[in-house]
Each structure stands twice: as C-alpha cells, then as structure tokens.
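REVIEWER CHECKLIST
Item 1: Sequence provided? yes
Item 2: Single chain? yes
Item 3: Sequence as submitted:
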Amino acid sequence: MRLFTYYPNPKNQAETSVGIFKDASEKEYLPLATLDAKLPATLLEIIASPALMDRVKELQAQANLTWQSSAGVAYAPVIPKPEKIVCMGLNYADHAKEGGHARPDYPSFFMRVPSSLLGHEQAMIVPPVSDKLDYEAELAFVIGKRCHRLTKDNALDAIAGYSIFNDGSMRDYQRKSTQWTIGKNFDQTGGFGPSLVTPDELPLAAHGLRIQSRLNGKVMQDSNTEHFLWGVVETLILISEVMTLEPGDVVITGTPAGVGYARTPPVFMQPGDVIEIEIEGLGILKNPIAKEAA
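Item 4: Structure as written out by the authors:
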C-alpha cells in the first residue's frame, strides 16, 4: 500500500487527511474517509494499529472503486508532526570521504524537529540569513509500534513503511558548531514524501534500491542502498538500544556522495530551482526552492 497525508484545504494546514494511491504510479488516489468514515483522520493512528492497516488493505482491494486524479493534491509531510525524527550521518563511505571524514566506526546521529518538515511539491525555503542550502537524498522509514532494544530477529517488525527524505542542510550553520543539528533544522528544509510505502512492496529491509538526486534535471547523486555502512536492521538496533521508539517516529538513513558543498565550485540550491529525490520502488519527491516570505 501507498498511504499519504495531505491538506484538504491548502490554506488551512492545521487540518490534514489521509489518502491511498491506487498503484505505484501515484497518479490516482482516494481519501480514506470515502472508503470508511470510521477510519482515523491521521496516518499515525492508522499505522499504529495492525487491525486498521489490514482494514485499509481490504478496502483498497474492493472492486469498482472510483479513483480520482492526484494532480493538484496539496501534500503534507508523510507524518506531519513526528514525536522523534532521528537522522544518521556518514552512512555511505563515499559521502564520508568527500566530506573529509574517515570511514566511521559508529554513525553520526542528530535530531530534526517537526517544523523543519515539508511535503512533496511544497517549497523548500532559503532563509534570509544564509544562501547555502544543500540537498541530501535519503531513505526514510517510519516506526509502526512501540519498541526498545530490538534484535536482528525482530527489528523489521517495527517498520510501518518507507519513504523519501531530502535532508536539506544550511552548510554554513552546520559548521558553526561541532554538532550538526543547528544547520539541519531551518523551517521547511526537510522534504518528506510523497507516500509511505508498506514493506511488502519492497525488498527486505529496502536493500538494493537505487537512490538519486536531480537538481533542475541534472543528476547530482546516484547510488544504492546496498552501499549503507549500517543497514536498516543495524540502524534500528543501534537507535533502540538507546531510546524507546514509538509509532510515527521517523528514521532518516544518511546520504551518498555528490552533495553540493563537496563540489568544485560548490553548488547550493537557489530560489527558482527544483530538486527531485528518486528512490527505486518509492517514487519521486519533488520540491521547488523559494525565498522565505517577508
């Protein structure tokens, strides 16, 4: 299944609804409320309940559904306000190398905040204090149940689904501190979507998926999740030995080589640009770049 969150009234982003795509093309969808008015109004509530996920799957399989075009849908982040957004750095050896880092013995973890998120086709924002907004193509996954101290045997049971993330980074602010968090949390810099794809539609642990970023149509990053230093299972084990994960928590798994700051000359996203992140089996996350409104 491919579930997503959207704004039924784009002018009121306090209210969201949940939709389901007909298939991997993501060109047609239905609001879940039209299939069953008793379903919860948030994706977090749905993924937290195996019974509700089964119910949605049953509803999608019905014959004679009247699907509608997804053109013009105002997408919200897949999970608009996660309790935790745990991000990994240096999870690809080539990206560590281009940034001047040795191959790490342990991932670099940092956190994002919900106000940094934005949905598919929504504008990533260049703030007035910096013009060094960089792109980072990343695989994301969303937790579906409460878990702590996961093992190799049960780690994947905790995942509700996978998605695409663009870990937009203000590089000058990232380097103002020995910690990266301040450069990773500007408002509307973390693209997240379009949809949550359930694990049954993907290879086990999302292994072997091609991942690309394209800036104005030019390929900037081109790699594969098979090159993770820490795969999805190992990542879950490392994080859950420290903290309890809850339904709706989001984990971002790091980016491959090809980011803008490491190029000669550096390439940063400017208002008017369009950035696309594509991951095999998950679709395309597309965001225009805009200035912060006065």
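Item 5: Key structural point noted by reviewer: The mean pLDDT is 95.
Item 6: Recommendation: ____
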